[in-house]
């Protein structure tokens, strides 16, 4: 017996199709058509479309249906939208723009953490040391390494007390996840990248905002090089 189709299944399918270009801006979806396609009730379809509308990906219009919206209307920092975009065509370019956000965001978050949250330094050091140990074992491309890296950057963004940075922590986590899915996290991370995580953590613990900011920038420089290279390779591959 087939498993029931839930609104989350429909949401993820349609979200990925819109984000990946399978559905173009201006395309119209109808509740009746979606009921038939997915074999579900009107209630299930409505719930999925309500969420897509809240994300700016479709717009409902009486007697027309639900019209797919251009990317300029999307909630592009929502983790779900990020995940859908990174799963589709042009994902390297999407990762490139998201990494630009991290380059602008994380050094300032590191400076703030060192100024106001030195007590977080110990936990950041512990996480950075785990990253080093896993990297030395050739496990830099594993789920465990990813989980610890997400914990490190989430703590960095949230410990300084800036609610705007905290609100973006899930978005940055989705970027890290997407980077790993694209195979951009090496099994043996670069020595400098791991060292900069450790030095960043120590600078936060020492209450040194200048060092913390500098090492955060160094971490992102390594990431930027990897992502920029992947973006160039994708452009070459797609002509």
Explained architecture:
- The chain has 239 residues and is mainly alpha-helical.
- The chain has eleven helices and three strands.
- It has a three-stranded antiparallel β-sheet with strand order 1-3-2.
- Strand 2 (58-61) and strand 3 form a beta hairpin.
- The longest helix is centred in the last third of the chain and has 29 residues, at 209-237.
- The radius of gyration is 20 Å and the shape is elongated.
- It starts with 6 loop residues before the first helix and ends with a helix.
- Measured by DSSP, the beta-strand proportion falls in under 5%
Strand order of the largest sheet: 1-3-2
Summarize the helix and strand pattern as letters.
HEHHEEHHHHHHHH
The secondary structure category is mainly alpha
The separation of the N and C termini measures 45 Å
List the uncertain runs: none
- Described by the principal axes of the CA atoms, the overall outline is elongated
Q: What's the overall average pLDDT, rounded?
A: 91
If helices are DSSP runs of H or I spanning 4 or more residues, what is the number of helices? Answer: 11
Which range best describes the helical content: under 10%, 10-25%, 25-40%, 40-55%, 55-70% or over 70%?
Answer: 55-70%
Total DSSP E strands: 3
Radius of gyration, whole Å: 20 Å
How many strands, which pairing sense, and closed or not: the largest β-sheet? 3 strands, antiparallel
């Amino acid at each position: 017996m087939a498993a029931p189709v839930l609104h989350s299944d429909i949401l993820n399918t349609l979200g990925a199709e819109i984000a990946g270009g399978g559905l173009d801006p201006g395309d119209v979806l109808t509740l009746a058509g979606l009921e038939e396609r997915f074999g579900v009730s009107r209630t299930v379809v409505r719930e999925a479309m309500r969420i897509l509308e809240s994300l700016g990906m479709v717009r409902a219009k009486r007697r027309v249906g639900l019209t797919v919206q251009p990317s300029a209307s999307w909630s592009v920092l929502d983790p779900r939208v990020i995940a859908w975009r990174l799963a589709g065509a042009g994902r390297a370019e999407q990762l490139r723009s998201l990494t630009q956000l991290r380059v602008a965001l994380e050094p300032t978050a590191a400076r703030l953490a060192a100024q106001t949250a030195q007590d977080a330094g110990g936990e950041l050091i512990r996480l950075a040391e785990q990253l080093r140990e896993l990297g030395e074992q050739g496990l830099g491309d594993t789920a465990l390494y990813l989980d610890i890296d997400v914990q490190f950057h989430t703590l960095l963004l949230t410990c300084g007390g800036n609610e705007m940075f905290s609100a973006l922590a899930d978005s940055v986590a989705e970027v890290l996840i997407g980077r790993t899915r694209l195979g951009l996290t090496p099994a043996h991370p670069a020595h400098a990248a791991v060292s900069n995580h450790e030095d960043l953590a120590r600078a936060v613990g020492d209450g040194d905002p200048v060092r913390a900011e500098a090492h955060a920038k160094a971490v992102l420089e390594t990431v930027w090089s990897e992502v920029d290279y992947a973006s160039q390779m994708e452009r070459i591959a797609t002509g």
